[in-house]
Structure formats: C-alpha cells, structure tokens
Amino acid sequence: MCGISGLINYNNTLPQDGHIIDAMLSVLTHRGPDNQSFVLTPHNHFGHTRLSIIDLKSGDQPIYNRDKTICTVFNGEIYNYLELRHEHLSDYPFYTESDTEVIVALYDKYGIDFIGLLNGQFAIALYDTRLNKTFLIRDRIGISPLFYSSNDDTVYFASEIKSLLITGRVPAKLDTDAYFDFIHLWSALAPGTLFADINQVSPGCYVEINRSGISSKRYWDFDFDSPNEQPLDVAIEQLDGLLDDAVKIRLRSDVPVAAYLSGGLDSTIILSYLTRQGADLETFSLTFDDEHLNEERYQSEVASYFSVRHHSFRANYQLIADNFIKTIWHTESPLFRTSPTPMMLLSSEAHANDFKVVLTGEGADEIFGGYDIFKEAKIREFWARSPNSSWRPLLLKKLYPYLDFKNISSTEYLKNTFGHNIGQTNSLLYAFYTRANITSAVGSFMQADIKKQLELDLESRVQEHLPITPGKYGVFNTAQYVEAKTIMAGYILSSQGDRMLMANSVEGRYPFLDHRVIEFAGKLKNRFKMNGLNEKYILKQMVKNRIPESVLKRPKQPYRAPDINALMQSKDNQLLDFLSEDQLRRNGLFDPSKVSKLVNKAIKGRAKSVKDNMLFTTILSTQIWVDKFIQAH
Amino acid sequence: MLKDKLRLFILENFLFTDDQGELNDEDSFMDQGIIDSTAILELIFFIEEEFSIKVEDEEMIPDNLDSINKAVRFIESKS
User: Fold this and answer.
1) Is B30 an interface residue toward A (CB < 8 Å)?
2) Are residues A508 and A405 in the same domain?
3) Nearest CA in chain B to A401
4) Span A398-425, mean pLDDT?
5) How many CA atoms lie within 13 A of A588 on its CB side?
6) Which of A134, A161, A404, A567 is most buried, most CB within 10 Å of its CB?
7) Is residue A164 part of a domain?
8) Are residues A498 and A353 in the same domain?
C-alpha cells in the first residue's frame, strides 16, 4: 500500500506550484516512507508516497502510458498483474516491471471497463488528457481508502482525510447524520464520512470528474443470489483451488511476506495454505494480560504445528492507553472499542522485524457467516415463527457468553434484549437491532441540540445508502450483505485494518477477500456456511485434516481488547482530561453532567458491562477525534 | 430509605443523571430501555450487596425487578 493525493480542476488551470500537493503528501509519509513524488499538469496534480513492495527499482509513480496521455497514481496491489500482462498486454511496450503500469496499459486498451479485470486491493487516480477526464477508482471491497472533497471547482482527493484537511480548502466539520449512522452501525454509510464535506469513493465504485462535474458509478457489488446446487465435496474442491490461488498470488512481492496469527480458524487456514506452498514463514500474534481475551495457547500450538518462526507481542493496559490518541489520529474516526490499538502495536512489531507485508484471515467471518450476529439473526428468525415460545429464545444463551446470561432464568430479559422488531424479517437491519440498541445509547449522552439532530430513521438511512432492495435476500444473506457494506468496509478493514497497518508502513493482504472467493461463497447454500449453528461449516470441513484439531473444535472467540481497564491507565490521566467538563463544553457534543457520572462509575471500577465499556470508549474517542480533527482545523 | 438508595443507584448507574424526574417509581426498566439483560446482573449484584439478600435464579424475573416499586416490594419481602 502507499499514499496518494491530488487536485483536479477541469474548469480552471491549477496554479503551477506544488505547495498544496507537497503539504498533502507530508501527512501521508507513514503510508509510503520509501519515496515521495508528484506531477503537476494544468488540470491535475497527482502525488504519491511509496511503500516499495513490487519492482523496487523502477516502480516509482506517477506512471504513464506509452504516449503519456494517461497518468496514474495508485495505492494497493494488482495481484493478477502478471496474468494480465501475459493475456491482454503481450505486445505492450512496458517500461517498468510494476503492477501500476498494467493499470494505464489496460485503460489505454479497454477504457474504464478495465477495472473488471483487476484482482486486488486498490485506490487509483487516473487522468486521461485525451478525454479531459479523471477517474478515482476503489477496489470492490473497500480495502484501500480513498476520499475526496470539492471546493470552488477543485476536487481534492487523498488516501486519508488528514491530507485533505491540511490544504485548508476542505472544511473540518462533523456530519451529524453520519454520526447517527456510526453509533448504530459502527461506520458512516458510504459515500458519506463523519466529515460533513468529505466523501469516500464507495467500495466497488469509481468516480468520474470532468468539466461538467462529479459522478459516481458502481462496477461491482456483493451478490448472494441463485445458490449453486453442487454437493459439499464438489464445493470444497472448488473452494480449495480458489483459496490456494488467492494465497499464491498474494505472495507476489519483492520483499519478504509474513502472516498474522490470531489462534482462530481463519488465520490458521491461511497459514495452512502458506506452508503448503512452501513459504518460509514468520508469524505475528497479540497476547493480552486478561485471560479471557488471551489466545496465546492456540497461537503457540498452531505456530508449532506449522513450524513457523513465531513472534508474540503483549499489548498490556499501559501500552493501549499510551497509544490510544495516536490510534484515533490514524483511524480518523471514533471507536466503540480499543481493539484497533493493539493491531497498531502489532504492525509496529512486524515493521521492527523488517516486514512490509502481512497476510491475514480477515474477511472469512463475513463471507462464510462466522459472526455470532448471523447466528443471532438465524435464532431470531426461528423464534419469530413462534413468538410466544419460551424455549426458542433460550438458544440465544448459546451466544454472547460475555452477556452473562448464566444465572438468568427468566426469558423476559432475553426477549427484551433480543426481541426488537422480531417479526420484521424483511428489514435490512433485522440482524443488527440488538447491537445497534447497545451502541446507540451514546446518543443519550449528547447535548440536547445534537440529540435532536440525531432523530433520524435508521431503516430509511440504510435503504437510501445501500444498493439493495429489502427482501431481496433472506435474513442470513441480508445480514451478510449489510455487515460487509458497513462494519467490514468501514471498521474492520479501515479502523482495525488499513489504518493500523499503514500507521507503521505495513501492507495487509486478505486471501478470503479475493473477489473470486467472495463470488463463490455468495452462491453457496447457506447451510454450507452455517450448519445449524455451526459457523463456517464448509471451511471447517475443508481443512479438518490440515490444521490442529483444537483450533478446529474451539468455540469462536471474537477478537477483543481491554477497554475501560486499559484506558484508565493513561499516563497522568491524560485520557481522562478529554472527558473533563472544560473539554466537553469546548467540544459541545456531550452533556458534561451525564459523562461525569459515567467517568465516576469507571473510576470506582463499577463500569464493567459491555455497554458501559462501549459508551466510555466511544465518548472518549469522539472527544479525541473532535480535538484532533475538528478543533485543530 | 431503601427506595431512595435504589433510585439513586439506577439514576447514577444506568441513566447517568441526578434528575429525579427521569424515573418514576412505576416505570418499567425494560420498556424504558434502562436495564436489559446486559445490565440486570449489575442490578442484582447491587441489591445483594446493599441489602444483604440472595436473589435466587427463579426470582430473577421482571415481576420482582422491573421497576423501583417492584424491586422495593421484592427486597422487603426477602428482608
């Protein structure tokens, strides 16, 4: 991955000095520490900070086509660039060995439809002087970030929002509608962001900019239609081949590649493919002081099983607290949990060991139905068929052990927590009501005027932003679709993914998010994904003789990190200062009297529930976010 | 006294406010979104510690715990 930024104006000539683009690149050096360059043309200024991974010698950007009428800067990887060169561009006069040049060569040959040929993760800016057009293109899933904003005919674009704000031409203002989306769905709804005048290029879309303005077009979307009728063994064979190739092409690199190992099923599966392909591998894992969060035992077992050189990094309370402000600087978003911070510490460890690339198991839970939220949706649907049943909701006790159900005999409390809109199985949010009810409690801490602005209808917001008709899929597939378009793109791959990796100049690669794997999984019968309540069934069947049995049979443990317990350990209470009455009044979002009660509860050690931890972390991180991005500009 | 203690606990820990007007004695904790299954244990811990009673599994039902008045009646019956 790298950093890109630029300015575009087709109605006027841009000033031919590089001070704005230079400033924009100056805050993206963590994304590309190896080289920095830009090009100025009358209507386009393109800049690039490079993290050299492929073609170390001649791959510096911008890259041009043969007659220099097309130019690109690009962040990401085109994994199938060798096949594309061979199959589509065998007579093209390449001047580099890079995957970037394949982009301009394919565009030159096929026009904008070339995107459909790419297999990879990418944020591309490409201008065409013949057509007087610029395209901003983002990968199908939303792995590589790309933002833009327009002001006085000029469009500013960049890999990170801080690069737009530093121009002084893009206002820094909270978008309260997007904050409403965020506190319900953990993510702003694309193309929006938490910043009022800044958009993202939506995953699976490209934006075209020309003299008449800006327009966005979708070229790809998730699809769960028409399940294949093939038997399980046939499906397993096909999936195995796809994953094998997805891993193989993600090993293409001119620098060493490592892997993250959580100790769960997904990263273990990736490791099994890597070792099968003969990769000489080093792995990196996080460990925690809290026993219930620590997966060390499984990590060691897997590392030993595959004989890899293993690195373990302990993210203790102090480290999490000390790095929380830096985390928000990189996520450019508030957080419900501290979980991204240890991921930033882990990429620092990979970087310290001279790795620029890591493969991870991200994406399998979304694509193959691994999350408890999918089970919850399934149980709720089952329960909705007989709403007065006392025992159907008891299945929920199998989920969410952290919700401490064990001593509660009455189903009334389960019904109260999980029974929201139980009959509305056509809703896009059917799987998400419970989680949204917990996180949206943040709204009750806001000042009265903000609270009023947050009185929106979530269902309409989601329908307005997601290109799907309610009822198109059943409950399970709808949940997969909405999860992939909201939390996966907006949080898992962003706040917890790209941003935490790039903070230390490390690129993440995700074989489960190869679009061929996604498209294949989208057509699987649901019972191959979740069999009863057995999640990721096909993956488990596929690897049952290839990974340690303990990992195969262990209950799913979602990745979590300590929240309040860690955040209370900040040096000189600097984090608590963000929650002081003065700071709260200065930022004007939260009611100081309510927040002080929550802080007191935390200080006394009584804020232990999931809800309290999320409230505290969200309010604190929002305060830091406002301080660093809104007040600072 | 018992009612005041309980009310203060609910206001401070679940509603995060001093405003007595935010909670009536008959308000359902569940209907008002004050206490759900994630918070019920916190309430039970408080009742057990503060009033030195033990809440049995079969007693953890809304009839005993879902409003200030219901909880007060329940605690008094156990004391």
Assistant:
1) yes
2) no
3) B38
4) 67
5) 7
6) A134
7) yes
8) yes
User: In the predicted model, is pLDDT for residue A57 greater than 80?
Assistant: no
Number of Cα atoms under 13 Å in the Cβ half of residue A214 = 21
Same structural domain for residues A286 and A303?
Answer: yes
In a domain, A559, yes or no: no
- Specify the number of domains making up chain A: 4
Residue A227 domain-assigned (yes or no): no
pLDDT of residue A595: 97
Q: In A386-474, which residue ranges form alpha helices assigned H by DSSP?
A: 411-418, 433-439, 448-453, 458-465
> Which residue do the tokens 């340690």 mark?
A548
Domain boundaries, chain B: 2-78
Residue A63 backbone dihedrals phi, psi, to 5 degrees? -120, 145
Q: In 3-state terms, what secondary structure has residue A414?
A: helix
CB A610 within 8 A of CB A402: yes
Picking from A416, A417, A435, A442 by the largest number of B CB atoms within 10 A of its own CB, the best residue to mutate is: A416
CA terminus-to-terminus distance, chain B: 14
Q: Which chain A residues are within 8 Å of B33, Cβ to Cβ?
A: 437, 441
Q: Note whether A358 and A466 are same-domain residues.
A: no
- Positions of A marked active-site: 2
Smallest Cβ–Cβ distance between A408 and the set B12, B18, B60 belongs to B60
Nearest to A610 among B38, B57, B58 (CB): B38
CATH number of domain containing A140:
3.60.20.10
pLDDT one-digit tens code per residue, B10-24: 998 888 888 899 899
Q: pLDDT tens across A169-209, in order?
A: 999 999 999 999 999 999 999 999 999 999 999 999 999 99
Whether B36 and A404 lie within 8 Å, measured CB to CB = no
Of A319-323, A422-426, B25-29, where does mean pLDDT reach its minimum? A422-426
Q: Which of B8, B17, B23, B40 best probes binding to A when mutated, by most A CB atoms within 10 angstroms? A: B40
The enclosing domain of A263 has a CATH number of 3.40.50.620
CATH superfamily of B2-78: ACP-like (1.10.1200.10)
| B17 contacts in chain A (CB < 8 Å) | 593-594, 597
3-state secondary structure of A21: helix
Q: Which domain holds residue A458?
A: 372-485
A533 and A576: one domain? no
pLDDT band (50, 70, 90) for residue A235: very high
Taking the Cβ of residue B12 and every Cβ of chain A, the question of whether any pair is shorter than 8 Å is answered with yes
Structural domain includes residue A123: yes
CB contact under 8 A, A407 and B33: no
A417 touches chain B (CB under 8 A): yes
| Interchain contact B61–A (C-beta under 8 A) | yes
Does A7 share its domain with A156? yes
Q: Is A398 part of the contact surface with chain B (CB cutoff 8 Å)?
A: no
**Do B41 and A409 count as a contact with CB atoms less than 8 A apart?**
no
Residues A348 and A441 in one domain: no
Of A407, A445, A611, the CB nearest to B39: A611
| Cα–Cα dist A27/A156, whole Å | 15
| pLDDT, position A400 | 63
Contact A408 B42 (CB under 8 A): no
Burial letters B50-69, b for 16+ CB under 10 A, else e:
ebebebeeebbbbebbbbbe
Per-residue CA distances from A471 to A39, A373, A425, A485, B69 (Å): 48, 18, 8, 17, 43
Give the gap in angstroms from C-alpha A311 to the nearest C-alpha of chain B.
Answer: 36
Residues with Cβ within 8 Å of A617's Cβ and at least 6 positions away in sequence, in order, are A335, A336, A337, A338, A563, A564, A567
How do residues B43-57 score in pLDDT, each as one tens digit?
A: 888 898 899 998 887
